[in-house]
């Protein structure tokens, strides 16, 4: 009978500051509580819209607000957290403490999936806080290579937690006692793939290189790629990235001409950067356009957006060459 180590044992064995471990543990524990609310859906009054709009000018779902409050309250009570930032909050929320860490999160990624019972998730990113003074928004704008930890929970067929603290990417599965269990000790992204993820309905809005790349894939065996491709689009980045970490693939959310001043739809601090750290540490590539690493993009504002082209390294290279 295989035994799966508890998350707490794995975390205790990591070479990392104890204060950081307390923050990672707090996020991991709150994701268990979030998974319960998500799984209850209508029974917890968690479906439907909240009747409010967030800083992204997006209609908030009830679960967006509920999960944002859960994570914010939990982290504000964590001694090593100096401030938090969230997709659902205009401004950062200082905790009144100094030093330790800054945490950004998308409390519920894939909100459009909530009411149809499709996968959703929570994405988090942890940065070092400034010492000796209260943090300001500018302290969050230091770029993804400064992340000391990042990860996500995906609420799907299984509930899983995938994260990185030092090197490597590790996965845990929630058991029937509400405990995370180590099930994926060393996640690696295969270098090659025949599977891409993109919202095809936007094809007419893409820049020409993206159209060329996708059209070549669609041409299959008789086309320039000389192989058939498969397509997936879950409309929750966390689920598409999880699939890529499990079996390879590429995920694209490119710039498009609908809002030419906007680099892309996805947010840099709490979607692009944490997912890029995971993908790179699992041996994949995470870029804005096939070439520029997302982790090299330095934000100018808390809710900056970014174009995304990430996944299997050799296929990201094919995107760059299109
Ligand atoms: P929501 O959280 O508003 O549903 O957006 C999810 C997301 O930011 C990302 O998780 C998906 O990959 C992407 O948007 C889906 O975008 P489309 O709905 O345009 O396909």
Automatic annotation (TrEMBL):
EC code: 3.1.3.11
GO biological processes: fructose 1,6-bisphosphate metabolic process; fructose 6-phosphate metabolic process; fructose metabolic process; gluconeogenesis; sucrose biosynthetic process
GO terms under cellular component: cytosol
The reaction(s) this protein catalyses: beta-D-fructose 1,6-bisphosphate + H2O = beta-D-fructose 6-phosphate + phosphate
Segments forming domain Fructose-1-6-bisphosphatase class 1 C-terminal: 189-321
Stretches assigned to the Fructose-1-6-bisphosphatase class I N-terminal domain: 15-185
Pathway it works in: Carbohydrate biosynthesis; Calvin cycle
Keyword Cell cycle: no
Subunit structure of this chain's protein: Homotetramer.
PANTHER family hit by this protein: FRUCTOSE-1,6-BISPHOSPHATASE-RELATED, SEDOHEPTULOSE-1,7-BISPHOSPHATASE, CHLOROPLASTIC
Family: Belongs to the FBPase class 1 family.
Protein name per its UniProtKB record: Fructose-1,6-bisphosphatase class 1
Native organism: Brevundimonas goettingensis
């Amino acid at each position: 009978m295989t035994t799966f180590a508890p998350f707490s044992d794995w975390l205790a064995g990591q070479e990392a500051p104890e204060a950081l471990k307390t923050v990672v543990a707090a996020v991991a524990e709150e994701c268990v509580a979030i998974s319960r609310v998500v799984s209850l859906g209508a029974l917890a009054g968690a479906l439907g819209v909240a009747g409010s709009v967030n800083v992204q000018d997006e209609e908030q779902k009830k679960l967006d607000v509920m999960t944002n409050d859960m994570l914010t309250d939990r982290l504000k009570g964590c001694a090593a957290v100096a401030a938090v930032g969230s997709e659902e909050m205009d401004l950062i929320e200082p905790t009144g403490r100094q030093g330790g860490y800054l945490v950004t999160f998308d409390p519920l990624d894939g909100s459009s999936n909530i009411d149809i019972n499709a996968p959703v998730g929570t994405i988090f990113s942890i940065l070092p806080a400034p010492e000796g003074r209260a943090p300001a928004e500018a302290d969050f704008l230091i770029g993804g290579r400064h992340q000391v930890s990042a990860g996500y929970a995906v609420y799907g067929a299984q509930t899983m937690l995938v994260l990185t603290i030092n090197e490597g990417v590790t996965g845990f599965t929630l058991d029937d006692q509400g405990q995370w269990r180590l099930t994926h000790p060393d996640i690696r992204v295969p270098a090659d793939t025949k599977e891409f993820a993109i919202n095809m309905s936007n094809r007419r809005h893409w820049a020409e290189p993206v159209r060329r790349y996708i059209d070549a894939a669609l041409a299959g065996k008789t086309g320039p790629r000389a192989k058939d491709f498969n397509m997936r689009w879950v409309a929750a980045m966390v689920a598409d990235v999880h699939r890529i970490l499990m079996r390879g693939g590429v995920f694209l959310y490119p710039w498009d001409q609908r809002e030419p001043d906007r680099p892309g739809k996805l947010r840099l601090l709490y979607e692009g950067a944490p997912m890029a750290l995971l993908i790179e540490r699992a041996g994949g590539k995470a870029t804005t356009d096939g070439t520029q690493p997302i982790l090299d993009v330095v934000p100018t504002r808390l809710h900056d957006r970014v174009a995304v082209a990430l996944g299997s390294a050799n296929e990201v290279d094919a995107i760059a060459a299109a």
